[in-house]
Write a structure and sequence with these properties.
GO biological process, one term: cytochrome complex assembly
Low-confidence stretches: 146-169
CATH topology of the domain at 35-137: OB fold (Dihydrolipoamide Acetyltransferase, E2P)
Signal peptide: 1-23
Protein name: Cytochrome c-type biogenesis protein CcmE
Region (Disordered): 141-172
Order of helices and strands: HEHEEEEEEH
Structural class: alpha+beta
CATH architecture of the domain at 35-137: Beta Barrel
Subcellular location: Cell inner membrane; Cell membrane
Shape: elongated
Radius of gyration: 26 Å
Length: 172
C-alpha cells in the first residue's frame, strides 16, 4: 500500500469516527433538550407530543384548586395569548397570580400538563425567557424604571418632582 492510499484510509477512518461521535452526542442530547415557548409562540408553532417549557405570567383570577386537593389549574399569559395549565403536585411557595412562572411539561387536549412549576424568587426577578417573551409581546415593564430612566441613574440638573436631592459629599 502506498503512502497516499494509507493517508486516504486514515482520513476516511477519522471522518467515520468523528461522524459516529457526533451522532451519539446528538442522540444523547435529543432527550435532554427542552425548548421554551410563550403563549403567543404556541399559537404559531406545532409542538406535538414533545416536552417543553411554557413561560409567562399567571393570569389574575385563574388559579383553581380541584376537589382532589392535589391538582391545580391556572392560565399562563403573555398578555396577548393565554394557555390553560394543569399541575398535579404542590406549587412553589412564591407562586401567585400576576407573577412570572415557567412550567415544564407537554400539551394534551388543548391543556398544558405541567410536571414541574417554577416561580420567580423575588419581586424583581423574572426568568430571562419570560422577560424576552413579554418584551416581544410589547408588554414588559422593567422594575425600577421610571419615565424612561433606569433605577440608580444620576438625577438631572433640572427640576425634580422627587423633592430636594442631597448635596454631594466633599471630595467626591
Amino acid at each position: 500500500m502506498t503512502r497516499k492510499k494509507r493517508r486516504l484510509y486514515m482520513l476516511a477512518l477519522a471522518l467515520l469516527g468523528l461522524g459516529t461521535a457526533t451522532a451519539l452526542t446528538l442522540t444523547a442530547f435529543q432527550d435532554n433538550i427542552v425548548f421554551f415557548y410563550s403563549p403567543s409562540d404556541l399559537q404559531t408553532k406545532q409542538v406535538g407530543e414533545r416536552s417543553f417549557r411554557l413561560g409567562g405570567l399567571v393570569e389574575e383570577g385563574s388559579v383553581k384548586k380541584l376537589p382532589d386537593g392535589v391538582t391545580t389549574e391556572f392560565r399562563v399569559t403573555d398578555t396577548v395569548n393565554t394557555v390553560p395549565v394543569s399541575y398535579r403536585g404542590q406549587l412553589p411557595d412564591l407562586f401567585r397570580e400576576g407573577q412570572g412562572v415557567v412550567a415544564e411539561g407537554r400539551m394534551g387536549g388543548g391543556v398544558f400538563v405541567a410536571r414541574e412549576v417554577l416561580a420567580k424568587h423575588d419581586e424583581n426577578y423574572m426568568p430571562p425567557e419570560v422577560t424576552d417573551a413579554l418584551k416581544r409581546a410589547g408588554v414588559y415593564k422593567e422594575a425600577g424604571k421610571e419615565a424612561g430612566k433606569e433605577a440608580g441613574a444620576a438625577p438631572s440638573s433640572g427640576p425634580s418632582s422627587a423633592g430636594p436631592q442631597p448635596a454631594p459629599k466633599a471630595g467626591s
